[in-house]
Amino acid sequence: MKQKRHAAILKAIARGDIKTQEQLTEELKSAGYLVTQATVSRDIKELGLIKISSASGGYKYAARPEVKRDANQHLNVFSNAVISVESAMHTIVVKTYSGMAPAVAATVDELLGTEIVGSIAGDDTILLIMESPEAAKEMCGRLEGLFSRKGLEDA
């Protein structure tokens, strides 16, 4: 449950200007999470969220930019491990060389986890579950671009 809540927090701060813990608590409650301000405070600390200047004035919560740089370094390493990326209905199948799927999946989860309903990694295959066939096709294109360009320029 904590992982889903963390994903919901990251999605909420990416969507809008979340300026206070109280505002984030209300966002989570409206999404169906029974949380207290203390829980949200712990989640903010665990996620390493920071406050940045907001375009509308004041400050808002954001994820640390270092996480994306670390993920970019991992993607550069793992891009050579990916053999293919294909979508089918609301799922995406990523084929890797033997033994590489768990590491590639962990990087994809860290980088794009808030946009993915769920993921399963075997030895050489990753199954990503999306909300719709359209979302799967769009994400498939993004993943192909990420792995072929070896970076996050368009992520």
TrEMBL record:
Compartments where located: Cytoplasm
Arginine repressor C-terminal domain span: 78-144
Keywords: Amino-acid biosynthesis, Arginine biosynthesis, Cytoplasm, DNA-binding, Repressor, Transcription, Transcription regulation
GO molecular-function term, one example from the UniProt record: DNA-binding transcription factor activity
Pathway field: Amino-acid biosynthesis; L-arginine biosynthesis [regulation]
Top-rank taxon, per record: Bacteria
Thylakoid as UniProt keyword: no
Stated role: Regulates arginine biosynthesis genes.
PANTHER family, per database record: ARGININE REPRESSOR
Family: Belongs to the ArgR family.
UniProt-recorded name of the protein: Arginine repressor
Origin species: Candidatus Avimonoglobus intestinipullorum
Gene responsible for this protein: argR
